Amino acid sequence: MTSSYSADQIQVLEGLEPVRKRPGMYIGSTGPRGLHHLVYEVVDNSIDEALAGYCSQIEIALNADGSVTVTDDGRGIPTDTHPTTGKSALETVMTVLHAGGKFGGGGYKVSGGLHGVGVSVVNALSEWVEVTVWRDKREHLQRYERGIPIGELNAKPDGQNRTGTSVAFKPDLEIFSNGIEFDYTTLAGRLRELAYLNATVKIQFADNRLETPRVETYHYEGGIQEYVAYMNREKQPLHEEIIYIQGERNNIQVEVALQWCVDAYSDNLLGFANNIRTIDGGTHLEGLKTVLTRTMNSTARKRNKLKDNEANLGGENVREGLTGVISVKVPEPEFEGQTKTKLGNTEVRGIVDSLVGEVLTEYLEFRPHVADAILEKAIQAFKAAEAARRARELVRRKSVLESSPLPGKLADCSSRDPAESEIFLVEGDSAGGSAKQGRDRQFQAILPLRGKILNIEKTDDAKIYKNTEIQSLITALGLGIRGEEFDPGGLRYHRIIIMTDADVDGAHIRTLLLTFFYRYQRDLADQGYIYIACPPLYKVERGRNHYYCYSDRELNNLVQNEFPANANYNIQRFKGLGEMMPDQLWDTTMNPETRTIKRVEIEDAAEADRIFTVLMGDRVAPRREFIETYGSKLNLTDLDI
Questions:
Q1: Beta bridge partners of 244
Q2: In 10 A of CB 434, how many CB atoms?
Q3: Are residues 634 and 598 in the same domain?
Q4: What does the pLDDT look like over 499-515, one tens digit per residue?
Q5: Residue 550 maps to a domain
Q6: Any domain includes 25
């Protein structure tokens, strides 16, 4: 089997020198996201072996010395001499950018990875890398330091006659200056996702940094059907059986799993192309949405759920309460944008449309009770949308009569360039007053929110558009209508910063706002427009000097390690933003030169959806279970469940 994958399939396009000079171009950033991407890049190579049918097990280990080891039982990277470079194919793959089996067409039918830069970038950005390859009854070993091979490729006989590749690497602190500590939860989310998307692969993940190693195994023979079940495990399904569609046309493989839920007002559709999550959508999701709308309307008319004189159900009505995963495997994927987040292959749209249309129509014909349940929910959604539209029109007419489309309490900025403008969503009028006085009026807007906004996890569109605080938020930000395609061109600020008090009420308001953004216009979170401000908890005065501390740990470190023994000092605990003077609020929380703000990102879409459902949904039992499980760890008090 290994003869079809050899040095001849490795094509060389360009050298490796630029990677260490501009690492952000290749891995996005040198912060935590880029650091974790190194692991994904190595794992992706093993997954590509699985897609080609040669790998069934992948083991990932976080080691005590800060390194990571990824081992698979694939064919093993070729080790024979490369015809162009004169070096081994392994050394070529490790030291030359854009060298790999994915470019020539002979090594892989389908592959993922980050722009094909692959393991050479990992090598360039690591303090050291050690690669072991088992193939041709031999064990091959080579070490690299900061991208440079140390010695020749060594080989010795392998009595076990195994095949596969093991890559161990330690990220370089010269590149990742903020630290090289991997987050177990972040990596586990992606590895679990890969196991759902590739049902044939068993992925074992070990954290050997602990005294007692933590080991988890991800293996889901049900594939994306199990993924949908995992996402819906805290919800009430409308139909027990998950609808599953699989097929292949023109070498493009399509897998779809769908399940509607009773207790959900929005849809949660995840799209993947060659195992890469396409957060910006693409032709596979467009095809799926089109065929769902057409098929459900056709079924509705066949079953007399819609009369001849009645309008068709809209796509957002049909998808209300739907959890779905679509995974396509495309031999020559075209991704739009630098981050590979939107699939561009036009032929995929039609293939998804025809494949899903045929299977779904037949499925619904044989299960009329499922068809009726979905249609009844969609028709209810259609009626609710009509009520919401009427409420919306009322709001719009009111705005026209008042001659000001923006809410009166918004203190807008003078800039009209959304890219440089930011808005602070502030809790209460007193904090709003400090923020308005302390801000830079050129690019900072302030919107005070009175009390706690509506929890939209538990409500429908009609109530949303009648709620004053929600309506102010929608109007101030320039958001479109719920369910419509997100248009960043209409957004008035590219940094939406949630600024609440550091107490239980502040955390609740922050969570309600995040629920609103996640459910109402999730693209805001997906595309990185939402941030959380980090105001200080304490002000410490000692003599004429003062210090701000943003956590109890910072305060203890300051008092115990920075101050002399028996020093006199005064600690002020900020109970709320309203207690801070405008200049204090500017210096600590609003000034771009000195502040810390956290960008809200969704690393694990399935887990994010589940957490919003558990914590903000109608059902009390899952929320109580969550609090009982994690309450002691999180020091949760005064919670209303």
A1: 257
A2: 25
A3: no
A4: 998 777 888 889 889 98
A5: yes
A6: yes
Which pLDDT score is estimated for 355?
Answer: 96
Candidates 252, 253, 364, 251; CA nearest to 318 is: 364
Q: Which residues are catalytic?
A: 427, 501, 503, 505
Which regions of 250-321 does DSSP assign to beta strands (E)?
A: 252-260, 268-273, 276-277
Q: Domain range spanning residue 47?
A: 2-218
The pTM of the whole model exceeds 0.85: no
**439/465 same-domain check:** yes
Please report the DSSP string for 185-218 in residue order: HHHHHHHHHHHHH-TT-EEEEEETTSSS-EEEEE
Residues 378, 275 within the same domain: yes
* Range 524-560 burial, b when 16+ CB lie within 10 A, else e: bbbeebbbbbbbbbbbbebeeeebbbbeeebbeebbe
Contact by Cβ (8 Å): 74, 163: yes
CA distances from 219 to 59, 195, 196 (A): 12, 6, 7
411 and 345 housed in the same domain: no
Q: Are 267 and 323 in contact (CB under 8 A)?
A: yes
Q: Are 380 and 457 part of one and the same domain?
A: no
* Pairwise CA distance, residues 111 & 117, whole Å: 12
Beta bridge partners, 411, equal: 446
Among candidate residues 321, 355, 385, the one where a domain is terminated: 385
Q: Is 445 in contact with 514 (CB distance < 8 Å)?
A: no
393 part of a folded domain: no
Dihedral-angle region of residue 583 (phi above 0 means left; psi in -120 to 50 means alpha; beta otherwise): alpha
User: Could you tell me the two tokens for 619?
Assistant: 């059902």
Mean pLDDT confidence for 221-226: 96
Question: Considering Cα of 29, then 282, then 257, then 608, what sign does the dihedral take?
Answer: positive
Instruction: Pick left, alpha or beta for residue 638 (phi over 0 → left; psi -120 to 50 → alpha; otherwise beta).
Output: left
Q: Which residue is associated with the tokens 């009982």? A: 628
Say yes or no to pLDDT of 270 above 90.
yes
Beta strand extents in 10-125 (DSSP E only): 57-62, 68-72
Higher pLDDT, 474 or 423: 423
Question: Is the pLDDT at 116 greater than 80, yes or no?
Answer: no
- Rounded to a whole number of angstroms, the CA Rg of the chain reads 27
Residue 1 has pLDDT above 70, yes or no: no
Nearest to 133 by CA among 39, 5, 8: 5
Q: What are phi and psi of 295, to 5 degrees?
A: -65, -45
